[in-house]
Write a structure and sequence with these properties.
Shape: globular
Protein name: Cytochrome P450
Distance between the termini: 55 Å
Number of strands: 12
Number of helices: 17
GO molecular function, one term: iron ion binding
GO biological process, one term: sterol metabolic process
Largest sheet: 5 strands, mixed
Strand order of the largest sheet: 1-2-8-5-3
CATH architecture: Orthogonal Bundle
Pfam families: p450
CATH class: Mainly Alpha
Number of domains: 1
Bound molecules: protoporphyrin IX containing FE
Structural class: alpha+beta
Keywords: Heme, Iron, Metal-binding, Monooxygenase, Oxidoreductase
Order of helices and strands: HHHEEHEHHHEHHHHHHHHEEEEHHEEEE
């Protein structure tokens, strides 16, 4: 925690302003206009707020905004050459190939693997007995562990690649890479997040390179194996280096984002028992291990997930840097300018949403469709050519976890509870989201 005198230095002060309450920071900025400037993290940034300004950068009609040099500043050394950090023709080429790993038949295959893996993860929640029955169960760390285990399973092809100690080391390495994004000291110095992340990246590269020949040799249905065997009609494939870079990025892209979404949904379902019951009834009507098509019939849960992504978008702002001079809504933006596309704010603007701070999943129902108020009113997955490639996978994973949790547990959270969200990297509840969790007991009608 920085002491107050440091917080008063303007360039760090604005960074901390953002981290302590991003929405308040974005609101203050937006009051000055949709295209403004601020010094943050030692650099001058153009800040885009409101759906029109966000749309301009994400549609990127004149190809002025680049991802690599923007995100590269925040997470570059650790997620180097992941799809999100590639640009223009090269990005297009890699995306064409990578999207074959996220077709519907592939996702159906991942769902088949996810279903038993989630069941096993939730068995462990029950086995933790003391925390499950009545005591405070910390939902966020439990979900983080669950989604990391799922990533090991679905992305890497199972725990047999590594023993428990190595898996723990890999998880730590991966977490170090993610946490470096919010580091204020961005130098490879002893004891810094930056140094831990460099070490983490090396460990992940070594692990993946070691297992790559075996993945190339046989065709499995885990993501690592799939990436090794992708081929376009023109015969394009990924090099070993590409596979490693994409794998490390995909692990990052998939993990925290899905965990945050499930956490937010659990919180609101705990605070709104009527929605919890409505979702549970739909889940109880399906098998414990549903197919992708069955999962898509969970309409109430779908509304809850959309509303959770609106209230707490896991990626609150998107980073870009201009590669040439351009303008947004008539305001000039010079070449070389770091740009923050503040999608979070659009989700909370009263001109786009009724009573935006209220948890109201029905706002996404066919009768209301408030998300149609603007093409970029709801953009948790971004927009334009970099729109999230894992959107369908994420939807399936998040719904599957919540489906099984709803069938097996019930929980309550105080209606007045406000999650103390930490925004040093992606948002998460600093208190771990304590909930009162009980095994679900079906009630017999009186
Ligand atoms: C709820 C969960 C998720 C959210 C909210 C989310 C959000 C986003 C956002 C906002 C972007 C765009 C970044 C930008 O324009 O700068 C993005 C890109 C991306 N996401 Fe996701 N994501 C989620 C889950 C996933 C999952 C599960 C995967 C993979 C399994 C994934 C893979 C990707 C990839 C590959 C990109 C880069 C796309 C490109 O640059 O062409 N995401 N995600």
């Amino acid at each position: 925690m920085l002491r107050p005198p440091l917080a008063k230095i303007p360039l760090i002060g604005h960074t901390l302003d953002y981290m302590s309450d991003p929405l308040a920071f974005m609101r203050r900025q937006h009051a000055l206009g949709p295209v403004t400037e601020r010094r943050m993290m030692g650099l001058r940034w153009t800040l885009l707020s409101g759906p029109d300004a966000c749309e301009a950068a994400l549609r990127n009609a004149d190809k002025a905004f680049a991802n690599g040099p923007g995100w590269g500043f925040l997470v570059g050394p650790f997620f180097d050459r992941g799809l999100m950090l590639l640009d223009f023709a090269e990005h297009h080429r890699h995306r064409l190939l990578l999207q074959q790993a996220f077709t519907r038949p592939r996702i159906e295959g991942y769902v088949e693997q996810l279903v038993p893996a989630i069941s096993r993860g939730l068995d462990a929640w029950v086995a933790q007995g003391a925390t499950v029955d009545g005591g405070a169960f910390l939902a966020y760390p439990a979900l983080k562990e669950l989604t990391l285990d799922l990533a090991t399973q679905i992305f890497m092809g199972g725990a047999d690649l590594a023993d428990d100690a190595e898996l723990d080391a890999l998880n730590d390495a991966f977490i170090a890479c993610v946490q470096a994004g919010g580091a204020l000291v961005r130098l490879d110095l002893p004891g810094t997040r930056w140094r831990r992340a460099h070490r983490g990246r090396r460990l992940l590269e070594g692990f993946l390179l070691r297992h790559l020949p075996a993945k190339r040799a046989t065709e499995g249905n885990d993501l690592f194996s799939v990436l090794c065997h992708l081929r376009t009609d023109d015969g394009e494939t990924f090099s070993d280096e590409d596979v490693v870079n994409h794998m490390i990025f995909l692990l990052m892209a998939a993990h925290d984002t899905s965990t945050i979404t499930v956490t937010t949904a659990l919180q609101h379902l705990g605070q709104h028992p009527e929605w919890q019951q409505r979702c549970r009834e739909e889940s109880l009507a399906l098998p414990e291990h549903p197919s992708l098509a069955e999962l898509e019939t969970l309409t109430s849960l779908d509304l809850v997930i959309k509303e959770s992504l609106r209230l707490v978008p896991p990626v609150p702002l998107l980073a870009r840097r201009t590669v040439k001079a351009t303008e947004v809504l008539g305001v000039p933006v010079p070449k070389g300018r770091f740009t923050a596309v503040m999608v979070h704010l659009s989700h909370h603007l009263p001109e786009l949403w009724t009573d935006p701070e209220r948890f109201d999943p029905d706002r996404f129902s066919d009768e209301r469709r408030e998300d149609k108020s603007h093409r970029y009113a709801w953009e948790p997955f971004g927009g334009g050519v970099h729109k999230c490639l894992g959107m369908a996978f994420a939807g399936a994973e998040v719904s599957l976890i919540l489906h099984q949790v709803l069938r097996r547990f019930e929980w309550r959270i105080d209606a007045d509870y406000v999650a103390p969200l930490d925004y040093h990297s992606l948002p998460f509840p600093a208190d771990g989201l304590p909930i009162e969790l009980h095994p679900y007991q079906a009630r017999t009608p009186a």
